Amino acid sequence: MSEPAPSSSSLERGLEGSKVGHRLRAERERRGIGLRELARRVGVSPSLVSQIELDRVNPSVSTLYAIVTELGMTMSDVFGEQPEERVVQPGDGLAERPETRPVINLASGVRWERLTHERDPDVEFLYVVYPVGAASCPEDALMTHGGREYGYVTSGTLGVQVGFEVYELGQGGSIAFDSSSPHRLWTIGGEPVHAIWVVIGREADPRTTASLPRAVVD
After folding, report:
1. Bridge pairing between strands 157-162 and 165-169
2. Each residue of 115-135: pLDDT tens digit?
3. In this predicted model, what pLDDT tens digit does every residue of 73-126 receive, in sequence order?
4. What are phi and psi of 37, to 5 degrees?
5. Domain 8-82+98-210 falls in which CATH fold?
6. What's the CA gap between 15 and 7, in Å, rounded?
7. What is the pTM of this model?
8. What are phi and psi of 133, to 5 degrees?
9. Hey, where are the domains in the chain?
């Protein structure tokens, strides 16, 4: 079963996405961490951090995870609260509709949409899209972070490397692994990947790191 074509309003919302830079900058300044110091800790250039904070470039998956962890934030903090102007429809209750859920756009066109109606500091429940050619991090700098991940592919083919093991997940394929194991996700073939992803207990590890060599992404 293929993913339904998104509506024009959904596409516009996806292109705009959630502006995360101001939240990252506000938390960095609140903690009294200099821009250059944060860049040093994360292993990227100060200019990249500046561009991310100004919402001029989208961070990669691994860069965003690294910055969020260094700042002691959760992904729920990055998505932010629901906008006050949101119109609540009859029957919404605890449910979340596609046209209203928060979106974060990342490098290479990767998109995360939060599936929970409200922020949840304990669980990241996401609808993710990896365009053709997209990856979560470079091949020589796999990600590690706290928690455990569960993924289910609804369309496309997703490559997943966990440690030295490589898996190819087609439609209906699923995977679960310890996020402290070096890992990487990428699109295989000429079709975008759509998947449901859950990360539980990411805060269990106080830092996001990369396997050797140290990730210098974006």
Report:
1. antiparallel
2. 988 888 889 999 999 999 999
3. 888 788 876 554 445 554 556 777 787 788 999 998 999 999 988 888 889 999
4. -65, -40
5. Jelly Rolls (2.60.120)
6. 12
7. 0.79
8. 85, 0
9. 8-82+98-210
